[in-house]
Amino acid sequence: METVKKHFVNDVGVMLGRSMRHITRSMDTIVTVTVMPIMFMLLFVYVFGGAIQTGTDNYVNYLLPGILLIAIATGISYTSYRLFMDVQKGIFERFHSMPISRSTLLWGHVLTSLVSNAISVVVIILVALLLGFRSSAGILEWFAVAGILMLFTLALTWVAVIAGLSAKSVDGASAFSYPIIFLPFISSAFVPTESMTKVVRAFAENQPVTSIVEAIRALLSGQPVGSDVWTALAWCAAILVVAYYFAMRVYKKRF
C-alpha cells in the first residue's frame, strides 16, 4: 500500500509538472483570466460604484469577493480546454500505455488549476489594494479566506473536468463556464439582495455564490461570519463530491 501511494504521489507530481510547463510557456492564459475580472472591478468601482448603495464607505471592499469568484470561474474554463485538447490529441491513450496511475492524469490538471487560479487571485487582490481595498482581517481570517477559495476552485475544477472530457468541440469545452461566471451577478456580490425583486432575491439568497461571498466579505472585514461560512463550505463540499463522482464516471466510461 505504501508503495502504491508513493507511486501515485510521484505520478501526480509528473503530471502536475507537465501541466505547469504548459502554463509557464503560455502566460497569456493567466493574463486573460485576470484581465476580465479586473476590468469588471474598474467598471463597477469608477462607473457604477457611486450609484450603488451598499451601506459601506469602501465599495472595493464590498466588491472584491465577487470579483475573485468571477476570476476563478473564468480560470477553470482553461482547465476544461486543456483537458479537451489532451483528449483530442490522444495524450490520454499514450499515458495509459505507461505504468502510471490512471487518475493522475486528471489530478495533474486539477492541481494546475489550483496553482494558476491562486496566482490570478493574488494579482487581483494586489490591484484591489491599489484601488483602495483595505482589510482588518488577521492571519487566521486570511487563511480561512484562502481555504474557502481553494475549496471553491477545487469544486469548480472537477465540474470543468466533466466538460473537458464530454465536450464535442473546443467551444463546448469552455462554454459551460459562462453560467457560472454569470452567477455572481445574481447574488450579493455587487449589490445587496434587499434591492432586488422578490423572485430574483429568493434565487440570489439561496444560491451558493451569495453565501460564499458573504462569508469571505465578513472574514476580510473582521466581522462575525455567522452561519454563512458553514453554508459556503457545505455548498463547496457538495459540488465537489458530486462533480468528482460524475467526472470519474465519465473518465472511466470514455477510457
Automatic annotation (TrEMBL):
Record's signal peptide: none
Protein's membrane topology: Multi-pass membrane protein
Keywords attached to this entry: Cell membrane, Membrane, Transmembrane, Transmembrane helix, Transport
Subcellular location, principal: membrane
UniProt cross-references to InterPro entries, sorted A to Z: ABC2_TM, ABC2_TM_bact-type, ABC_2_transport, Nod_factor_ABC_transporter
Organism: Paenibacillus gansuensis
Family: Belongs to the ABC-2 integral membrane protein family.
Lineage: Bacteria, Bacillati, Bacillota, Bacilli, Bacillales
Domain ABC transmembrane type-2, residue spans: 28-254
Protein name as it appears in the record: Transport permease protein
Compartments in which it is found: Cell membrane; Membrane
Record-annotated membrane-spanning stretches: 30-50, 62-84, 105-133, 139-163, 175-193, 229-247
Record bears the keyword Heme: no
